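Q: What would this complex look like in 3D?
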Amino acid sequence: MTGHVLEFLGETKRELGPVGTAEGHWRTGRDAAGVLWLVLDKQDTSTNTISEDVIRELDSHITAAEADLPAAVVIRSAKDAGFAAGADIASFEAMTDDGAVKLLKQAHDVLDRIAALTCPTICIVHGAALGAGFELALACDYRITVAGASFGFPEVQLGLHPGLGGTFRLPALIGATDAMTMMLTGKTAHTKRAKSQGLADVIVEERHAAAAVAAVVDGKIDKHAPSIASRAFGLDQARSLAARQMRKETEKKAPQQHYPAPHALIDLWEDHGDDPDAMQKAEIESFATLLKSDTSQNLRRVFFLRQKLKDAGRGDDDIAHVHVIGAGAMGTEIAAAAAIKGKIVTLGDVETAPLGRAIKKVVQICKDKHLTGIETRDALDRLMPDPKGYGLARADLVIEAATETQDLKEKIYKGLEGKLKKGAILATNTSSLSIDDLAAFAPTQDDFAGLHFFNPVSRIDLVEVIKGTATSDKTAQRLAAFCGAIGKLPVTVANYPGFVVNRALVPYMLEAMVLMDEGVSKEVIDTAALRFGMPMGPVALADQVGLDVGLHVAESLSTSLDKPMPPISDDLRAKVKDGKLGKKSGTGFYDWSDGTPRPDADLDDAPADLTDRLILPMLNACVEILREGVVETEDQIDGAMIFATGWAPFRGGPMHYARTRGINEVTEALKALERDHGPRFAPDEGWSSLA
Amino acid sequence: MTTHQKQRVFLVDGARTPFLKARSGPGPFTPVDLAVQCGRPLLARQPFDRAALDLVILGCVNVIADEMNPARVASLRLGLPEETVAFSTQINCGSGMQSLDTAYRYIQSGSHQMILAGGAEALSHAPLTLRSSAVEWFGRMNAAKGPMDQAKAMAGIRPDFFKPVVGLERGLTDPITTLSMGQTAEILAHRFRIDRNTADTYAMQSHHRLADAQNDGRLDDEVMPAFDRDGTVYDHDDGVRPDSDMEGLAKPKPVFEPPYGQVTAGNSSQITDGASWCILASQKAVDLHGLEPLAEITDSEWAGLDPSIMGLGPVLASTPILQRHNMAKDDVDLWELNEAFAAQVLSCLAAWNDDDFCREVLGYDAAFGRIDRDKLNVDGGAISLGHPVGTSGNRIVLHLAKAMKQRGAKRGIATECIGGGLGGAMLLEAVV
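A: Here is my prediction, written as structure tokens for the whole assembly.
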């Protein structure tokens, strides 16, 4: 609702007690009841993070409170964005030497003193309280939770575990089982769950926050009592047993070799779970160690890569209505993504049956995203199946997601002549055709571009915005902003065979098929890739993408690139001919009836250069993409590969991996492969300018 | 009396859902769901923005608890601005026409320029309600304090409390005369000597005409496919029986007054879910947005009569219009007379063709004349399509406008009988 009356009335004012203007990052004041309000309002940013400065200033405010004990202390945030997003990740870089331990100890000391205050300490949480922000909330006696708030420890995603007391304060509050699950998975607990777990003492609307504080001060709200069941974990044997189970589960998702942090956390808990003081000391040491690990450094890099892509998607897209042509799998998912994020969507198809199936699929996507009944209804209301194409004339953006043939797309574009709104963008979701070739048939060339989503759209965040030769800057910018508006990460690329992601991935999949022809089993091949850290082996990936789609892209790349590609295997052609298309038809190279195959083969007899044969052609393609100016920076390539394919994130992306391993070493390895297996491995000339 | 310059009112476009026969249990759509299903494509094909609509009016008889004031719920779900006022109308089977008539008069008065007026009904969702004795018992249970009191209250429970009252059945029974709607048709059949064979013949034609209209694409711009959450697509009025014949129609027994009655399930309207919208606009709005009206609405009328003969409502409501405009039988090119029951439609025709009736009741000198079957309900009616009560009045006006355009007709009347003893009628004229 955006009516002018509500707009005039504005948002509910946040209850900040009697605080004055900011002195540093905090605003403070004591109210008539003697309650001290400490309001975090970090300077020069819209989101609070717990930086060194924030802690230092908090230290002095707590010192003052110790000297003149208030009736209670309230800690909250003044920001619309929520309580606090966690530690200042950028500052981690400066902390990777031994100074980390010292800084951590200082911060721990401040939180320990909050916990030790003899007056009630109350944290009011609205929005997200993450990482160090969550830990600050945990140091308080009470958490008053404004509806919509959430708590979480996303540290594992950065190769870390909680480092500001979370490892011992959270289990003490909600029990070890729930606490370890939260810390190991990084999943957030939303308001309701936070209440049932005991993180939240009360849930209130913002307009009743002050009344809730008064209720705490008057002793009308009971403190959450830690669960009795978790006392069993005071016994070493019980913890050891549970830890073994946790390690087993964790190893499946995050092997220790690549992701040490969750395993370190389990060790901490097993060793010190019955002794908070020992746990605190060990947490500080372990956190400082992890901070220096390659995994954490690379995962922090991934965090910033995401931020950069997100930044590229900011701005006004000036797109209210999207018309999608083609209710196939991609068209449906694109339509769903846009409708869920508030766009008016018309989904066009000449037949009504696929439109019916599309609606069913959208219902499923809403369910998978845990949308409420009302949210689902609204998304479905915004998404209109449009067999007559009424939406074309109203749309600000038309996304063509028809079958991948040049002829069909040409025909569709010709049919759009004179039908689109002035200034409307026409974008194609093609994965293999040339944007410049298609542009010739678009109603207006400067309003035409590629918008390449990946399957499944609901799970893959990256979108390639392909700026053809004739595409205007404004069109490319609006498309990037559109991606941002529907929660996707755009990377703007030039027109090039396979764009970025498919150009790099196709050799990976084709090489796997050559290896199979040589007699190496698909399980061995995929295991090698998984152990390198790829989320899926190349053979399983080909099956997932669909062998017909893969073959089409491979053929298109093989003909349009100057470079030799691995030969397309006869087996692949035969499978496509027989209709064994992979996951979607039930079988391809694998049988998919039992879900996604995750082979774990013995690699003792595997060819020594197996992993390099799979991985290095991707790096080689990335260097070619960079040299050809398809993207501007190595970071864009790394971001694209990680967020489109899940490319070993703990390695920081293919270009970062190449730099870590050494440009010369990679070039030499490619030369060796070229000698042994042919010219398709010849290092790209672009390597020389990187060294 | 002050006379204001009356604004001309145009019906510029309209669309409806397929009418879906109520089968076992509630259908896939609520009244507002249906209104959204057909409202979206209708609005999507307009050259103007949703904000150009001044008002939303929706007729609905069986409002469900989650959709109080269905017009407002539909308006917001269709993405109209929150500033746009929306209200619902209820005059039983006339609700969807009442919405149009209200819109017509508002625009005529100059207070509004463009109005979305519709009807929506999901008879398959008609509520089951608890008996009032059960509601009282439930209240006592809730008020009971302490276990003793509760036990005492509990003891008052009777098995028939849980025998629900079928809302639909009650809704189709006249509350004044306690006659069912079917019985009022039996009364007319008896008075006007409509026999079973004539009624069945009429019903068969209704099915054949609808089937022809569907096959020839005459409903393509009118009926918008509806899509449910299971992926099912509803793209046509599914009560139609293209192969309907006299042998089949002879089989069903009289439902309302067995064993000697005339009215059967086969020659009555069907129980259906469906919604319909029309957009009415002033000359100013037509010019501003460059609209191409289907027809102009030039008159409307409502009439009341004894509830037991409510089926004659169309005669009572249409005649004053005919008389005001000095229109003889041949001056009306097309008629949409809602087919509540074949016997009821045929009784209306018989009344207009009866010298005594026309003289004594309608004030004519002689019979108005027999309305030509070729001008009446040319593309079928509620017997083949179904009769979602709050929607039908809207549908007949919409279809009349479309059919007039398709056939180059100059003048047409859409009229309906209304349970409770009322009738409604609208006069449409081609835009020249």
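A: To summarize the key features: Chain A has a mean pLDDT of 94. Residues 504-690 of chain A form a domain with the N-(1-d-carboxylethyl)-l-norvaline Dehydrogenase; domain 2 fold (CATH 1.10.1040.50).
Q: Very helpful, thank you.
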